[in-house]
């Protein structure tokens, strides 16, 4: 038993190391000026993974330019999406989990089916509609399509189904009503599911590329992935700055996932308890 446990720990550590190694290489390479990091790639040298003689000059230049404003835009858009998206998902999930109305099962199936359609498949015609509605190049245009997230609704609905019916009945007898029961009974018990759904909403916006490319056309409304892509142009490519930007964009969700790892895992593990 002890040998198997040691082997499991070793395998997990090895897998974690292999997953972390590329990100560490990006960080180490981002500390080198310009494109000098390629000197250690052919042939591959151990120096490629150690930031020997490096500096944070790439990060300083990057955060003094348009990328810093785009990064703030990404935080703003993702933060507003989390707040408003959770409000939409909570109300929809609560209705699908608690309220008995004709066709409730069909509505839930429709939500799941729609969430499986790749957004990129409808992004171009949807951008035409947003242009007609004068929502192009606006924060509202960047945020609105991400508010109704089917997977967030699914996670919350499954968690709400696990709330004991006795608690809901007792709250109704006490006169709380549907909305009061949601606020005072259901939501305090659903913190893991709320965190999991919030992370889904945040990640969907943080890594979005096609929709911000179609909607956020001016430099003032660009998000960080678009600004990162714009660091490469026809006349010059500073891979050091591109790697620095890539590390920043990767580190933010990584830190969030590490900080909320337990709640996020719990929200996913409980999403299949009841149908």
From TrEMBL:
Coarse class of the protein's main subcellular location: membrane
InterPro entries noted in UniProt: MetI-like, MetI-like_sf
Keyword terms, alphabetized: Cell membrane, Membrane, Sugar transport, Transmembrane, Transmembrane helix, Transport
Cellular component terms (Gene Ontology): plasma membrane
Domain (ABC transmembrane type-1): residue spans on this chain: 71-260
CDD domains with a match to the protein in the record: TM_PBP2
Name assigned to this protein: Carbohydrate ABC transporter permease
Localization of this protein: Cell membrane
Lipid bilayer topology: Multi-pass membrane protein
GO biological process per UniProt: transmembrane transport
Family, similarity comment: Belongs to the binding-protein-dependent transport system permease family.
PANTHER family: ABC TRANSPORTER PERMEASE PROTEIN MG189-RELATED (PTHR43744:SF12), ABC TRANSPORTER PERMEASE PROTEIN MG189-RELATED-RELATED (PTHR43744)
Organism the protein comes from: Kribbella sandramycini
Pfam families in the record: BPD_transp_1 (PF00528)
